[in-house]
Backbone:
């Protein structure tokens, strides 16, 4: 009894677990139960039950309510679809002036808005694309096809690759110096001579539209939320859901609203990239000391000056992390949005993966990653740039970068022109190296993959079989064996013990949504894969983080490695695992583990670093050994921060599990991927996305509540 | 005295949702306790005072006494709940946003406890910041800022970032920034509290040197009584939002208005605060020594001279007219005696 009094929480947890297992054993698996491989509403089966709501029939397999709840939310996807259809086709028809046919046309309002939005996005993308690659659409937009026919000189080609490469190098030099300039030059040359120029520039034009727009919207909304409590309250739930919503799932409704192509991809990218930008802007602005704001006011700043010259620059650190996130999301969307017809490297990457041409995929993936790192570093350097007021510079020194660029343009044109004589037959390599006509190492990599397969096939296969048969299958069976009621009790009980009645209610609502959707079994599979990934990631991440923390240099090095890895678009992680493990669950899980280990490692190091130095000294003076210090001082204090890392790890793992559907899994992601090619997929895709987001949010809520309490308890907040 | 530069009449600042209503109901008789029970916190309670041109008013009080809130009311960083504040005769609370910005750009400067430098700007950029906000050309603002850098003795460090400077140096930047627009009114909110004692003394001396040169009208906030005594023309002592006493340092030490002020002054070394004038007796002809001391001397500075005399010493004014006398025994009495009950 003493013991229970001393640890009341422990007793509560034990009680919860006992109830959970009791329920698990008490409720038998129904004889008719088996894992449904198809979607219930598409299967005609006399054993199915059904109900009718909103005039739609929802069919499902009925079980004991304790075992699986009936899919009372089965009508939701249908209803979403119908609403979208109604909005796009029937709601508020209005007369709009049609430029092409020169007459008024009746169109629903939403359709008109989305069409205008998409044509604006298309214009922006084409504008940049035609600078880089040539084309006529922009010129035509300002004149007409007739005018072009009359003035053939206006059919300008794009910039030769030499000029773009020189421009990027000079810009990098101006922003940061020789190191970055060298990197920029190498990246550009690599892209060009490996024949990736055209898709790279297509992707770049997509990024150059999506990233700045996301940044502006995110910053603007972040400022609005900072200034007005009401805006913040309205945005908060959306931000929360968007943070854990898999990027796939957003694609599906986007097709309905914006159609297929680069423009839709830009809009979707903004939908995904803006929320983290808002959150980080808000975080940064909140963190400014009130005296700095007062100092700004006393200097006589107007509201605008206060915002642009004091608040935003002071919150620069967090806003920069936001920019980094935006760029990261943009690149990962550049790949994913290839599913809805965006051109560029992402499309090539998907194509190569589909053909199992690992070498080609590797080259495209490397290109994306290199451009991502380059843009990330450039944006960072730009934000940190300093002005020299005292340098006594000559006119030439002041304008040397412009001068060099002009020289580069002239040289580039001369090269391209002479090239057109030199390479009379075939391609002008000094103008643009066409796709797949450059050097390619694809064969080398493919042979490498084959060699690995031939040589290590036995071992890989043995490992694969062992993992799947002895670890994954039993684990999956265990997850599916949980009766819905037992799961609900476990989750809600955990919510109650950690955060009281409020947390319990939130968590209960989120879980019920998934349980009442038609995809509970699938959600369990997603959870099992994510759990497996998270557990391994955390073990690796915490170990590596702790080891690296022992030495200052290795800690900084590790954080740098995490930075670089984080810049890789999530899809790129699939390439090497497919090289090694082919198309199996193992591949997905290993990609999940690699991807999710990044936040686990990063937060471990940062958490350990955040332990105050005074405590280190105090501990040392108490005569602790290194191990005692680690376990008695550093871990307990760093633990809340490390738990936030766990939170991130879960989100990352869920994302990758869903993306893993591309390789082939039997979870929610598989259906999302299916919904992409389904005419009526929008509702299903969105509901599935919400299910995944809610899995993330359940953990998010529990962990955050716990961390807040723990931090308060330790006096860290 | 010339017209007051800063004038406050019955200023109240009360935090809380229905502060205005409660203040209205209490009809000026604010009791902190009843307000607190209703979820309101009294920051400033009926403050009325004037500061004249070139004067340094030091507002003294422990943390939470409302001194910083009072300063923020006068600089209108927060709006006073009720009362009137005049800056050079202008009604501060009636100014619209543009007029207020104008006033701050040209008339006011402020120094903060935590320095409040902009982390992304160098020393010279920080100092030039208020000038650039005003719309002065970059070149001119930078050259003006360089003057200020020299004034506060930071030459050679103009391209450093705040994070690369020590606390004392950072506050020099803060001071330079607040002076860059050549304001008439200078607010200092515990400017030296975050500094080490030695640096603090050095900065106080530096501050006195600057004030000797510039003759600004100053409101200076501190929780350090010694600092107040060292710098002030007049001191206002605050407790729970109320100004307990506002007077010259000597009068505060000699005639504490309330028990609270008396407790504060108990441990004060009088010889460092009081002037001969404050303790001298009437003119006497008997037993005079040849020594004459000025009435404006601080006791500490002349005590040794007087104590070496056995006879009474004459006190003279600036025209060398005898205005009083002082006996060595009086000095001994002032310095060592009667701390508890005298005066």
Residues:
């Amino acid at each position: 009894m003493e013991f229970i009094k001393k640890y009341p929480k422990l007793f509560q947890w034990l009680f919860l677990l006992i109830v959970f297992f009791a329920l698990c054993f008490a409720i038998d698996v129904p004889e008719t139960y088996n894992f449904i491989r198809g979607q219930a509403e598409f299967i005609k089966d006399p054993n199915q039950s059904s109900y009718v709501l909103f005039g739609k029939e929802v069919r499902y397999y009925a079980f004991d309510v304790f075992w699986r709840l009936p899919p009372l939310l089965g009508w939701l996807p249908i209803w979403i679809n119908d609403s979208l259809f109604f909005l796009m086709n029937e709601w508020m028809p209005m007369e709009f002036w049609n430029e092409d046919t020169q007459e008024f046309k009746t169109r629903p309002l939403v359709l008109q808005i989305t069409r205008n939005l998409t044509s604006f996005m298309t214009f922006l993308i084409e504008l940049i694309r035609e600078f880089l690659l040539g084309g006529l659409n922009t010129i035509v937009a300002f004149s007409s096809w007739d005018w072009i026919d009359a003035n053939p000189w206006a059919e300008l080609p794009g910039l030769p690759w030499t000029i773009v490469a020189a421009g990027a190098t000079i810009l990098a030099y101006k922003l940061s110096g020789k190191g970055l300039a060298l990197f920029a030059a190498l990246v550009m040359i690599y892209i060009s001579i490996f024949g990736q120029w055209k898709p790279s520039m297509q992707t770049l034009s997509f990024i150059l539209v999506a990233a700045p727009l996301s940044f502006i919207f995110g910053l603007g909304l972040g400022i609005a939320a900072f200034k007005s409590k009401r805006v913040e309250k309205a945005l908060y739930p959306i931000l929360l859901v968007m943070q854990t919503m898999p990027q796939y799932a957003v694609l599906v409704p986007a097709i309905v609203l914006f159609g297929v192509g680069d423009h839709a991809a830009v809009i979707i990218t903004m939908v995904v990239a803006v929320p983290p930008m808002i959150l980080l802007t808000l975080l940064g602005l909140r963190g400014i000391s009130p005296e700095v704001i007062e100092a700004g006011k006393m200097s006589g700043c107007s509201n605008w000056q206060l915002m642009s010259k004091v608040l935003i620059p002071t919150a620069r650190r967090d806003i920069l992390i936001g920019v980094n996130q935006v760029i990261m999301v943009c690149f990962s969307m550049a790949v994913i949005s290839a599913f809805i017809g965006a051109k560029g490297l992402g499309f090539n990457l998907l194509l190569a993966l589909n053909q199992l041409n690992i070498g080609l995929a590797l080259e495209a993936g490397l290109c994306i990653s290199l451009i991502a790192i380059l843009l990330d570093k450039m944006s960072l350097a730009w934000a940190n740039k300093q002005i020299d007021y005292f340098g006594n510079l000559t006119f030439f020194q002041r304008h040397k970068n412009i001068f060099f660029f002009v020289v580069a343009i002239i040289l580039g044109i001369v090269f391209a022109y002479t090239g057109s004589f030199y390479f009379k037959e075939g391609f002008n390599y000094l103008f643009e190296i066409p796709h797949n006509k450059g050097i390619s190492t694809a064969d080398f990599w493919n042979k490498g993959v084959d060699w690995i397969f031939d040589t290590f096939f036995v071992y890989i296969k043995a490992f694969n079989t062992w993992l799947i048969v002895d670890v994954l299958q039993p684990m999956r069976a265990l997850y599916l064996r949980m009766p819905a009621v037992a799961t609900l009790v476990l989750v809600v009980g955990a919510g109650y013990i950690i955060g009281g009645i409020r947390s319990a209610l939130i968590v209960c609502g989120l879980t019920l949504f998934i349980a009442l959707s038609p995809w509970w079994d699938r959600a369990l599979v997603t959870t099992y894969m994510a759990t497996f990934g998270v557990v391994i990631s955390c073990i690796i991440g915490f170990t590596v983080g702790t080891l690296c923390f022992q030495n200052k240099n290795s800690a900084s090095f590790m954080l740098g490695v995490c930075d670089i890895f984080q810049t890789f678009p999530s899809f790129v992680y699939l390439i090497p695992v497919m090289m090694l493990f082919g198309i199996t669950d193992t591949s997905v899980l290993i990609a999940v583990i690699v991807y999710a280990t990044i936040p686990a490692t990063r937060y471990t190091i940062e958490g350990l670093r955040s332990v105050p130095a005074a405590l280190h000294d105090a501990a040392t003076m108490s005569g602790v050994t290194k191990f005692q210090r680690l376990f008695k001082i550093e871990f307990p204090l760093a633990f809340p921060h490390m738990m936030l890392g766990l939170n991130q790890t879960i989100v990352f793992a869920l994302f990758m599990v869903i993306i893993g559907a591309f390789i082939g899994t039997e979870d929610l992601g598989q259906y999302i991927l299916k919904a992409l090619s389904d005419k009526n997929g929008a509702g299903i895709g969105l509901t599935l996305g919400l299910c995944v987001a809610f899995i993330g949010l359940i953990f998010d809520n529990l962990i955050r509540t716990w961390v807040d309490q723990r931090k308060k308890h330790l006096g860290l907040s | 005295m010339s017209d007051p530069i800063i004038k406050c009449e019955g200023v109240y600042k009360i935090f809380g949702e229905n502060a205005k209503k409660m203040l209205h109901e209490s009809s000026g008789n604010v009791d902190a306790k009843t307000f607190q029970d209703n979820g309101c916190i009294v920051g400033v309670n009926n403050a009325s005072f004037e500061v004249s041109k070139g004067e340094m008013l030091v507002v003294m009080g422990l943390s939470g006494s409302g001194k910083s809130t009072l300063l923020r009311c006068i600089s209108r960083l927060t709006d006073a709940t009720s009362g009137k504040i005049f800056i050079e005769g202008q009604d501060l609370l009636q100014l619209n946003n543009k007029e207020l910005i104008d006033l701050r750009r040209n008339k006011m400067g402020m120094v903060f406890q935590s320095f409040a430098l902009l982390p992304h700007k160098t020393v010279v950029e920080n100092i030039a910041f208020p000038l650039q906000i005003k719309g002065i050309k970059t070149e001119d603002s930078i050259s003006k800022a360089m003057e200020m850098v020299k004034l506060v003795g930071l030459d050679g460090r103009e391209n450093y970032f705040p994070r690369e400077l020590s606390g004392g140096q950072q506050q020099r930047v803060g001071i330079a920034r607040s002076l860059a627009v050549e304001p008439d009114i200078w607010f200092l909110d515990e400017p030296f509290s975050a500094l080490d004692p030695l640096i603090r003394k050095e900065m106080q001396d530096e501050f006195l040197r600057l004030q000797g040169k510039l003759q600004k009208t100053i409101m200076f906030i501190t929780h350090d009584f010694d600092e107040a005594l060292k710098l002030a023309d007049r001191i206002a002592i605050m407790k729970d939002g109320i100004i307990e006493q506002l007077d010259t340092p000597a009068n505060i030490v000699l005639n504490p208005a309330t028990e609270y002020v008396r407790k504060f002054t108990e441990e004060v070394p009088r010889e460092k605060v009081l002037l001969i004038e404050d303790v001298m007796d009437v003119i006497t002809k008997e037993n005079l020594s040849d020594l004459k001391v000025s009435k404006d001397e601080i006791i500490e500075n002349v005590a040794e001279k007087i104590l070496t005399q056995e006879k009474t010493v004459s006190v003279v004014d600036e025209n060398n007219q005898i205005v009083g006398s002082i006996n060595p025994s009086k000095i001994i009495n002032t310095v060592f005696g009667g701390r508890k009950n005298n005066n």
Residues 535-714 of chain A form a domain with the MetI-like fold fold (CATH 1.10.3720.10). The interface with chain B takes residues 289, 291-292, 294-302, 305, 309-310, 313-314, 316, 386, 389-390 of chain A (CB under 8 Å). The longest strand of chain A covers residues 93-98.
